């Protein structure tokens, strides 16, 4: 077993090295002394999701790393998109978005949460939620401003804060033995006179946490007292389990006027490759988001915008069976991971759950995830990639359960090999 483990480690390490070369690795004798990559982005390299998906393809593993579904997406959306293409809707749409989608977003926010937005002046279509977040940070922050964010957090947040010349200010989530919590006082303690913006993600990636109403009330209180702008990433808004309810922070007293609310079609309707997102905000905030967005992608494909609008008009028809499927997959994967000996930190929403590997192995999460495909044919994501201080997540691993049932079943069977110390054939 020792020799196979060493071989796996060597192979995995070589794979990672190919995927994420350092500036030193790409330098040549004739290269200039100044690195090619700007200093703001040099620390980020290739995203962990690209690395682990490449490893899954290379090894033929079940990919429970990157959070994308395996199905084709809802037939309704596909039919609308195809029809729009056939009808010739293939040129630049309006920069702010197709009117049909702008109106559908506004109607969705009103119907779901009682939030009223003018589709002409308070809704903006973006290339997925990632671009909306990037545009908000770039358009609303000055260099040196501090951007507060939950820790751990989705990896693009820190990168776009760096692009803006702003400073990441982590606000730690804690695991209390039963669930992830935002401890009272943590956000207040992180605020300084340079704090400009809170980037808030709930339901939360990577932990699967859904912020409670009490936690949100404290968040709102801190933001009002310190006059903070809030940018909320709510892409998993409909993917919550066990009777929980997602509450947008913009619904709390005094918060709509200081909040940019972001979501997308990708997660709600299982079309992550379409990259159709949106932002809702008062005109004075949306102006900053739009100022940055127009010089990034400029527009999002018109046929896909029309299809996303159709999805929003049929939200509950499409989402209800998806939530049932995801909850069932979550339970099956959690049972399989627990059976393999891993303490599971359950998911209240999203596509993801996390496990603590410290009771099973002395390896850190990165080493464990690099060798896992060779040991049992499953790919997961190491959580240090999500933390401001990677050491804080060194024993945490994220698994995605947004896959076909057959893939989850196969992954559970393969993970069972770990209990016996087996490796991949």
Write the layout of secondary structure elements.
Elements (H helix, E strand, L loop, with lengths): L1 H18 L3 H4 L21 H12 L2 E2 L11 H12 L12 H15 L9 E4 L1 H13 L5 E6 L3 H9 L3 E6 L1 E2 L4 E2 L4 H5 L4 E7 L11 H13 L3 E5 L25 E6 H4 L8 E4 L2 H11 L8 H12 L1 H25 L4 E2 L6 E5 L8 H12 L1 E2 L1 E2 L13 E5 L4 H15 L6
Parallel strand pairs: 1-13, 3-4, 3-7, 7-8, 8-9
Antiparallel strand pairs: 2-10, 5-6, 9-10, 11-12, 12-15, 14-15
For the record, what CATH class of the largest domain applies?
Alpha Beta
CATH topology of the largest domain, anyone? Aspartate Aminotransferase, domain 2
Order of helices and strands, N to C? Answer: HHHEHHEHEHEEEHEHEEHEHHHEEHEEEH
State the helicity in percent bands.
40-55%
Which second-level CATH architecture of the largest domain applies?
A: 3-Layer(aba) Sandwich
Q: CATH superfamily assignment of the largest domain?
A: Type I PLP-dependent aspartate aminotransferase-like (Major domain)
Low-confidence stretches: 1-27
Number of strands: 15
What coarse outline follows from CA principal-axis ratios? globular
Strand percentage? 5-15%
Instruction: Tell me the strand order in the biggest sheet.
Output: 2-10-9-8-7-3-4
Which whole number gives the mean pLDDT? Answer: 92
Distance between the termini: 12 Å
**Which class of secondary structure composition applies to the elements?**
alpha/beta
């Amino acid at each position: 077993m020792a020799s196979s483990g060493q071989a796996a480690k060597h192979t995995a390490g070589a794979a990672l090295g190919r995927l994420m070369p350092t500036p030193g690795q790409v330098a040549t004798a004739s290269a200039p002394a100044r690195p090619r990559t700007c200093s703001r982005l040099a620390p980020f390299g290739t995203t962990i999701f690209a690395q682990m998906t490449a490893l899954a393809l290379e090894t033929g593993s079940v990919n429970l790393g990157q959070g994308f579904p395996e199905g084709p997406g809802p037939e309704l959306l596909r039919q609308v998109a195809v029809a729009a293409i056939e009808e010739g809707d293939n040129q630049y749409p309006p920069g702010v978005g197709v009117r049909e989608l702008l109106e559908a977003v506004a109607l969705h926010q009103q119907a779901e949460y009682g939030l009223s937005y003018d589709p002409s002046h308070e809704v903006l279509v973006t290339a997925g939620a990632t671009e909306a977040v990037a545009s908000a940070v770039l358009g609303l922050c000055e260099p040196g401003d501090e951007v507060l964010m939950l820790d751990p957090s989705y990896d693009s947040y820190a990168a776009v804060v760096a692009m803006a010349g702003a400073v990441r200010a982590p606000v730690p989530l804690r695991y209390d033995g039963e669930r992830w919590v935002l401890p009272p006082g943590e956000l207040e303690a992180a605020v300084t006179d340079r704090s400009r913006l809170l980037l808030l993600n709930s339901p939360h990636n990577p932990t699967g946490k859904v912020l409670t109403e009490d936690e949100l009330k404290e968040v709102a209180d801190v933001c009002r007292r310190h006059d903070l702008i809030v940018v909320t990433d709510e892409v998993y808004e409909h993917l919550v389990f066990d009777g929980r309810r997602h509450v947008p922070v913009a619904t709390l007293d005094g918060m709509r006027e200081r909040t940019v609310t972001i979501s997308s079609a990708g997660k709600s309707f299982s079309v992550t490759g379409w990259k159709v997102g949106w932002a809702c905000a008062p005109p004075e905030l949306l102006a900053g988001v739009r100022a940055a967005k127009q010089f990034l992608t400029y527009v999002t494909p018109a046929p896909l915008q029309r299809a996303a609008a159709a999805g929003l008009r049929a939200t509950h028809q499409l989402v209800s069976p998806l939530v049932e499927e995801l909850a069932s997959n979550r339970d099956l994967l959690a049972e399989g991971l627990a059976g393999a000996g891993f303490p599971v930190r359950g998911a209240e929403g999203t596509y993801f759950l996390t496990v603590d590997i410290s009771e099973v192995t002395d390896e850190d999460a990165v080493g464990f995830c690099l060798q896992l495909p060779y040991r049992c044919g499953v790919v997961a994501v190491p959580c240090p990639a999500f933390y401001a201080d990677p050491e804080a997540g060194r024993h945490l691993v994220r698994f995605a359960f947004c896959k076909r049932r057959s893939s989850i079943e196969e992954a559970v069977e393969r993970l069972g090999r770990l209990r016996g110390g087996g490796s991949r054939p």
